[in-house]
Each structure stands twice: as structure tokens, then as C-alpha cells.
Amino acid sequence: MTDLTSMTIAEARNGLAKKSFTSLELTDAHLAAIEAARSLNAFVLETPDRARAMARAIDAKIAKGEGGPLAGIPLGIKDLFATKDVRTTACSKILGDFVPPYESTVTSQLWRDGAVMLGKLNNDEFAMGSSNETSCFGPVVNPWRREGSNTTLVPGGSSGGSASAVAALLCMGATATDTGGSIRQPAAFTATVGVKPTYGRCSRWGIVAFASSLDQAGPIARTVRDSAILMRSMAGHDPKDTTSVNRAVPDYEAAIGKSVKGMKIGIPREYRLDGMPAEIEKLWSEGGAWLKAAGAELVEVSLPHTKYALPAYYIVAPAEASSNLARYDGVRYGLRVPGRSIGEMYENTRAEGFGAEVRRRVMIGTYVLSAGYYDAYYLRAQKVRTLIKKDFEDCFAKGVDAILTPATPSAAFGVGEKGADPVEMYLNDIFTVTVNMAGLPGIAVPAGKDAQGLPLGLQLIGRPFDEETLFSLGEVVEQAAGRFTPPRWW
Amino acid sequence: MSVDATTVRRIAHLARIAVTEAEVPHLQGELNAMLAFVEQLSEVNVDGIEPMTSVRPMEMKKRADVVSDGEIADDVVRNAPERQDHFFLVPKVVE
Fold first, then answer.
1. Does residue A480 lie in a domain region?
2. Does B42 sit within 8 Å of A363, measured CB to CB?
3. Does B32 reside within a domain?
4. DSSP 3-state helix, strand, coil percentages of chain B (rounded to 5)?
5. Which residue in A99, A338, A421 is closest to B33 by CB distance?
6. Is A87 on the interface with B (CB under 8 A)?
7. Considering only CB atoms, which chain B residues are within 8 Å of A392?
């Protein structure tokens, strides 16, 4: 059993093709691992019957030589993706027992390619959070612990369930979404690989909306190669999403192992924060040295509006959220709390259905869009966003192929350690949020450990639709840093 | 800029979120902390800068004006907390 769950997707694909094991055996091994790891709270819904049925069906196809690129690979699905006839809640009480009569485009493409669904993964409520503590199903536990300590650590968020499950060998890969860092930050906290694709690369159709101009789906996996394999199935044009881009999907896996010789890697000076921990600084320069040793050239670059990305994000994202979440009114689906009038019913439903963080963001968003404040806040933030995007464009125009930064300002922290001051939690996304504001692709790759034995990640930021360069560079980092697996204690 | 208790109640009403009197001071503190955090944007010179309204430059997609879906009323009302036949039920809105 241990062998079957510790393989990479690439290894399992070979094993299935050679008939060393069946998808049903692989699926059963993962279902057993999930059952034994319930204390991590990574899954909010296990779907073993569906998983076995899907595995049997794909085994029959494999036997006939009709597999598909992900044939028989068991995956976990973030609970933000609508899955037909399977409860989808965005980990919010307000969606209650919502059972979608449709399937999200991204997941439908995974099933088209032969993947098997193990269940739905925990996340911060409506993906609003950086620690997975805002989920109505409770926090997810990081399989990593500080050396010599049994303090419960967060896996990051919002895709905390995805990151935790992949790191703990409960699924071979997982879907995730990233609005301000929700794929890359949890990947960094769990020593997994997380890819936030270019805006428009993956369809948003059927994914519970948070901030539509920032949201993008992507994979979390254990290796750069595995994340490239998943990306190929998740990406692609979808007429049902007006911002989905009609552009051929490359064979991302072919970029793995490609030479990075001569590539120009930008090191942005504004990411060198005051009071940045020495180990983050060290990791960052080590990453640069690895890329240099592989033949890349390091150049210092400037992204002057970096410090304004997070405050601008905390206007744009809540504004879009307040608009998107207006649909939860207790009428068409989900929770309804009665009131004396329809207005009171709306207010009671939303007060009880939304958690504290979501209420706070919806209110801020409502405020910055309200008459008299729109220009001062929302319009100004949209203009600052133009400047942030231009910073990157100027940098790429000078021939920079990709930008190297730390993924997070620290390693994973303890459950309940942050959050009294919301802004303190928001600072987690300081290195990742610029990428969403500019609509660029980014990848987080495990690169080392801090003094307490916790994983740390590096981020690579690419040109629009040049995920391939990120996979090539990410592979160099992975080869140099090695892979990190948490010791099993759960 | 900062918000007072009256503004907090007004925003909550605009957002259709019931707020008790006891919650107002706490919410006011949190909202003001966020507003203080975003205040630094006022130091950016945005003269002559266009607001970013589209992430990737692309022509707006249009589709043919034809019925592409439908006849799924059962599916549409399936998740409604209260329904009757193919109708959503709401508290009385017209006297």
C-alpha cells in the first residue's frame, strides 16, 4: 500500500501502462490512506463508491488500450469546483448541502482524460484565507511539524486541503485555485509544487467565484513534472468562460528537462523586505545560484509598485467578492434563515451563512463600491493595478524570461497563531499577490527547510502564457533542492 | 478615511448582512484597520493612468443568439430551500 501512494503521477502512469497494478488497486490504496488520515481534516467529503466505479471503468478502458493522459490517476478536488451530483460547498455554511447538477469545465477535462475522483478537499470559506482556518468544516492540519514539537501547524490557504492531502500522500495530485496566492502559499507550506497559470488559461466555469478578475485554477502535485502533466488536462479554451483564452495547450511535460542555458532571470530588489528572515534570504540566493549553475543569467530588476499590490488587492478582491456573493440570498440554493420580510430573510441568511472573514470582506467590498467612495478606492486601485502590470511588462520587455522570488515570507505557522489582526494574515501573500494582479503565471517549488525543519518554497513568475519556461526552471530548482516528504505521524 | 458606527450599520444593510448592536464596535475596528492598510495607495501618482478593466487584452467573445440550454427546470429548482413545482418560494413581497 505504501508503495502505491508514494509514487509520482509519472511513475503511476508507467505502472498502469505496464499493468503492474490496476487503477482500482491504486484507488483503494489512496482511499485507505485518506481513512487513516482523517485527523488532518483535508477531505470534507470522501467519495469512495464513485472513486471505485471510476477506477473500474478506466481499468476496462486501459485494458482496451484507450487510457487517456491521466488514465487511472486518483485525484482530490478542491470543494470550490462544482462536481455533478456530488456536494459542493466552497466550505461555507451558506451553500449548505448544495449538489450541483453540472460539472466544472476543469474537472470535466480531468475525467475526460481518465482521472479518478477520491473526494472533495477542504479550503478557506469561498477561498478567502491564507491558513484554511476560515473553512466551515474547521482547519486543515499540515502534515509537517516543527522538529521535536507536536504543535499543530496550518497548511496555508486557501487550498489547504489540496496541499495537505498531496503532501500526506492521500491523493496523487489535486485541483486548487489561486486568487492572491491560494495555490502557491499552501504549496510552499507543505513542500508541494503549486502552479497558478496565466489568467485565462484554465476555464473558471463551474468554479465558485471569489474575485473573477483574479481567480485562476491550477494544480498542486508532488513534483514539477506531475504538475505539468495535470496542467495539460486542466488548461484549454472554454466558450462558457468569456475570459478563457482560445490558444492551443502545449505539451507542458515536454518542457521538463529542457535547458535553461542563457535564460535571463530577474531578481526584483523590491522583494527584499526589511526584517526578512535570514533563512528566506539564504534560500532565495541559493535558488539563484542553482539557476546560474544550470546556465541561466541573473539580473537585478525593479518592480517599483510591489508594495502597493497587497493594499490594491484588498480593494479589488473584496469589491468583486461583494458582487459575486450577492447571489447567496436564501432563495435559489443553500441556507435560508427566515425573517419577517424578504429583506430580513436575506440579511439573516447572510449573517448566519457567511463566516466572519467573508462578512468582513463583503462589507469592505460594498463600502469601496458605494456611492461617494468608488473613485477614491476602487477606481484608484484599478489604476494602481495597471501600474503593477506595467512593472512586469517593462521587466519582460528588457529580455527577462522569468522572475525568481521567495514564495512566502515565512514557513507554516501554528493554528490560531495569526488572525487577531486580519492585516497580519494578509501579509502572507505579499510575494504572490502581485502575480494575480498582473494576470501572470507563477509556480511555487519546494527549495529547502527552515531552522525548525519546516519546508520553504521559491516562486518563479513568467511571461503571460509561458508556463513552459516555469516548468523548465522549476525542474532545475527541484533537481538541486531534492524532494521533501513529511515523516508520517498521523 | 475611517468609518463610524452609523456607516458600519449602513454598509451592513447595503451588503444585506444582519448586524447586532454588539457586533458594531468590533466590525468598525476591523474595517478601519483594513481602510488604514489600503490608505497607502493615496501616495501613488495615478494621473493619466487608465484603470485596469481587462486582465489580458482580448476581444470580447460573442456567441450566436440561439438557445443553447434549457428544459431543465427540475435541475434549476433542485437545490432551492423552499419551492413549489417549478417556483422558488419567498416571503410575501406584495400586500
1. no
2. no
3. yes
4. 40, 5, 55
5. A421
6. no
7. none
- Assign B93 to helix, strand or coil: coil
Please report whether residue A406 resides in a domain: no
ipTM of the complex: 0.96
The pLDDT tens digits of the residues spanning B37-66 come to: 999 999 999 999 999 988 988 888 888 999
In the prediction, which pLDDT does A1 show? 43
Whichever domain contains A158, its CATH number is 3.90.1300.10
Instruction: For residues A184 and A166, give the distance between their C-alpha atoms in angstroms, rounded to a whole number.
Output: 13
Per-residue pLDDT of chain A (490 residues; tens, 9 = 90+): 448 999 999 999 999 999 999 999 999 999 999 999 999 999 999 999 999 999 999 999 999 999 899 999 999 999 999 999 999 999 999 999 999 999 999 999 999 999 999 999 999 999 999 999 999 999 999 999 999 999 999 999 999 999 999 999 999 999 999 999 999 999 999 999 999 999 999 999 999 999 999 999 999 999 999 999 999 999 999 999 999 999 999 999 999 999 999 999 999 999 998 888 899 999 999 999 999 999 999 999 999 999 999 999 999 999 999 999 999 999 999 999 999 999 999 999 999 999 999 999 999 999 999 999 999 999 999 999 999 999 999 999 999 999 999 999 999 999 999 977 888 888 889 999 999 999 999 999 999 999 999 999 999 999 999 999 999 999 999 999 999 999 999 9
User: Residue A214 domain-assigned?
Assistant: yes
Considering only CB atoms, which chain A residues are within 8 Å of B34?
314, 360, 364, 422-423
* Record: contact A311-B40, CB cut-off 8 A: yes
CA–CA distance, A284 with A266 (Å, rounded to integer) = 12
- Give a yes or no: residue B58 inside a domain: no
Domains held by chain A: number: 1
Burial of B53 by CB count in 10 Å (0-12 exposed, 13-18 middle, 19+ buried)? exposed
**Nearest-CA distance B8 → chain A (Å):** 8
- Is residue A345 situated within a structural domain? no
Q: Is A348 on the interface with B (CB under 8 A)?
A: yes
Taking a contact as any Cβ pair under 8 Å apart, which residues of chain A between 272 and 311 contact chain B? 305, 307-308, 311
Backbone angles phi, psi at B60, to 5 degrees: -65, 130
Q: Measure the CA–CA gap between A156 and A142, rounded to whole angstroms.
A: 8
Nearest CA-CA distance, residue A365 and chain B, Å: 9
Q: Is A118 helix (H, G, I), strand (E, B) or coil?
A: strand
d(CA A441, CA A475): 16
Q: Active-site residue A158, yes or no?
A: yes
Domain that holds residue B19: 5-41
Residues 6+ apart with CB under 8 A from A17: A62, A67
Q: Is residue B21 part of a domain?
A: yes
Q: Whole domain around residue A248: which residue ranges? A: 2-260
DSSP conformation class of A101: S
Q: In chain A, which residues have their Cβ closer than 8 Å to the Cβ of B41?
A: 308, 311-312, 315, 380-381, 384
Map grid coordinates 476560515 to a residue.
A134
Q: Is residue B94 in a domain?
A: no
* Count of domains forming chain B: 1
CA A4 → CA A120, A165, A172, A379, A472, distances in Å? 21, 15, 10, 52, 27
Best A244, A383, A393, A437 residue to mutate vs chain B (most B CBs within 10 Å)? A383
A92 is catalytic: no
Answer yes or no: A120 catalytic: no
